[in-house]
Amino acid sequence: MNSETPALPPSLQAAREQWSWRGQARPPFAAEPRSGQISVWDFPRPPRVAPESREVRIVWGGVPVACSTRTLCVLETAHPPTYYIPWDDVARDLLCPAPGSSFCEWKGPARYWSLVHGTRKLPSHAWSYPQPMAGAESLAGCVAFYARGLTCSVGSLPATPQPGGFYGGWVTPELCGPFKGEPGSEGW
């Protein structure tokens, strides 16, 4: 750490250090990837933000929500990728601010958004990091969506929600786990 980088608060440093698995080696319980598959246990921690050039598409009951080939994905050990779509590629008129907030030890404070179309509403179904922490600055102009209740795809691949309901990753057929959020994953 250089003298220009402020020290992390002890609670944040402790949260970052609690993880046993950091992508350097797969745990014995991880599935072995088949040909053409990627293990989420090979993703790093701290997470890496990477460009996703495949088309990322979200549709809600026939209504287009987002479509982008400029998406960023966050790759983190044990998690399927979370896709962050530039605001310019999102139908912003479908989003309204939602109550609540959360804090990620890697990305910082999150703001939540509800999807609203006519009388339909998906509360707190998207989130953004307007002021992300160091290392996640590129997410500032993007928003991510939970896949549940939506039709989501990455390239030609269908995406389903990360197990458990709390995390926002998208599971596509080329991934193998197990994934954080499945029963028994609380300790990792």
Distance between the termini: 27 Å
Order of secondary-structure elements: HEEEEEEEEEEEEEE
- Roughly how many Å is the radius of gyration? 17 Å
Looking at the structure, what is the overall shape? Answer: globular
The strand order across the widest sheet is 2-5-6-10-9-8-7
Quick one: biggest sheet?
7 strands, antiparallel
Strand content: 35-45%
Low-confidence runs: none
Description:
It is a single chain. The strands form three sheets. The protein has a seven-stranded antiparallel beta sheet with strand order 2-5-6-10-9-8-7, with no helix packed on it. Strands 4-3-11-12-13 form a five-stranded antiparallel beta sheet, with no helix packed on it. The protein has a two-stranded parallel ribbon with strand order 1-14. It is globular. Helices cover 4% and strands 39% of the residues. A hairpin with a 2-residue loop joins strand 8 and strand 9. With 188 residues, the protein is mostly beta strands.
Main attributes?
188 residues; mainly beta; seven-stranded antiparallel beta sheet; five-stranded antiparallel beta sheet; 1 helix; 4% helix
Task: Describe the structure in brief.
By secondary structure, the chain is mainly beta. The chain has one helix and 14 strands.
Give a topology summary.
Layout: H1 10-17, E1 38-39, E2 48-52, E3 56-60, E4 63-68, E5 71-75, E6 82-86, E7 95-104, E8 108-117, E9 120-128, E10 142-145, E11 151-154, E12 157-161, E13 170-171, E14 175-176
Parallel strand pairs: 1-14
Antiparallel strand pairs: 2-5, 3-4, 3-11, 5-6, 6-10, 7-8, 8-9, 9-10, 11-12, 12-13
